[in-house]
Every structure is written in C-alpha cells, then in structure tokens.
Amino acid sequence: MISKQVLAMTICVGLAGLSACNRNGSPVVQANADPAPAVAPPPTLTLDAGAQIPVRLQETLDTRRNRAGDQFTAVLDAPLVSGDQVGAQVIVPKGTLFSGHITQAAPSGRFKGRAVMALTLDSFQLNGQTYPLSSTSTSRVSRGHKKRNWLWIGGGAGGGAAIGAAAGGPAALIGAGAGAAAGTVGAAITGKRQVELPTETRITFKLLSPVQISG
Q1: Residue 29: band (very low, low, confident or very high) from pLDDT cuts 50, 70, 90
Q2: Helix (H, G, I), strand (E, B) or coil at 187
Q3: Domain boundaries, the chain
Q4: Does domain 44-144+193-214 have CATH number 2.40.128.260?
Q5: Entry pTM
C-alpha cells in the first residue's frame, strides 16, 4: 500500500512537470472574445457643378452704404438634391445658412451711369461643418436716368424763361439762365440712383465646381 508521503511526493512532481511544460511554450487554451465590428466611414455626397442655389437674403444690401468686400448671409430657399431625378436624395436641406460677399457696389453718377451691385456665395454651414464653394456672381443694375435729368433741367429752364417773359425784356434771358441753373442743381442733388436689395430678397446663384459633403 502506497504511503501518504509517497502519494504527496508524486502529486508534487506531477504539478511541477506541468508547470515546466507551460513555461516551455505549451499552448494554453483561452476563450477569445469576438472582434469589434469595423465602423464604416460615412458616405460622401456630391453637389454637382451647375446646381442652382436659390437663397433669401438675411439683411438689406444697398449701394448707399455697402461696398465691395462686405459680407452677407442668406438661407437656402429650396433643398438641393442629387442630380439623378429617380430616387433623388436631399444633399443640402432648405434653411441651410450660406455666406457670401459683395463683389461690386457703386451708385450711379449724378447725370449719367447706372448703380450696380454684384454678389457671390462663398460657403455654407451643414452639421457643424463649413463647406467652401465657388458660385457665379449675380448683379443688379438700376435704371438709367437721362430722361429724368432732361425733365429736371428742361423743366427748370422752361420755368425760368416763362417767369422772365412775364417780367418782359432782358429779364426773360436772366430768368431762362437762372431756371436752367436751378434745374441743373436739382438734377445734381437728386439725380443719383441706387440699388437696394431688402431682407428676404430671393436670388439664385449657380455652383461653378462640385462640393464633396460628408453624409
């Protein structure tokens, strides 16, 4: 019969051998956790060149106070969708905030010329990100004022001549000259025309190059 001392020694020797095997590189089976699934990158959408961008101004612009380089903001008046009409996807939703600047702003001359204001878009904000863009420049030009000047000057001269004729003699010539001068001054003071674009004015621009947008 095996003594307790021999049995205990045998168990100790076996455990020591097993420990040595593990230290020598014997494989130890472990439970492996499932790998985390790969996160797919967000899809990229493209706003194609040539897209029409209808916006509404968020402030009044006019040639009395605005000059080239001044910034303005506008909101998108209709959603921008993918070019494919079948299953078209909204890329930029209505109400998106756009920014732009004035490329040209000048009042008319007092006697000739037209007032002009030109605008272009620079960027828009979407999901906390700013997307630069390049768009066409849209212009507004005032009507000419030659007829208005003629009425002021001609009316002034005619009025002066009539007053001078009523007085008789050389006074008619003086009156005519005075009337012409008064008419010219009136045109100089009031003859300038302006371009004014009130808040909520609708303007449409065209995108010149495609814009890549993170979905």
Answers
A1: low
A2: helix
A3: 44-144+193-214, 146-190
A4: yes
A5: 0.61
